[in-house]
Amino acid sequence: MKQKRQREKHLYKKYNTQTQFYKGVPLNLIVYTESHFARLKAKRFVINHTNQNLWIPNVYLLEDGTIKPNVNIDFVLNNNRRQIALAGVTLNDTRERTVK
Known about the structure:
Layout: H1 2-14, E1 20-22, E2 25-29, H2 34-39, E3 42-47, E4 53-57, H3 74-79, H4 81-86
Antiparallel strand pairs: 1-2, 2-3, 3-4
């Protein structure tokens, strides 16, 4: 049991578990075991320290789970609008809408 805890602490040092902000949305990486991360094509993030989460593809992340600078992952936010709202974060809707 003690060895497992030491391994898990090591993973927390390897991955960025600090709060990251993308367009005002606070995101925290959920750390799994190394073998679990190896087979995933995306990483899971908690929104605003609640039980709501979203997945961000590894293509848009650095090796340590940090969101790459100057990358556009708005599609992730748009696909998860309900989870973001339930987490208590309000998004400014910048999409243009036509008035009929």
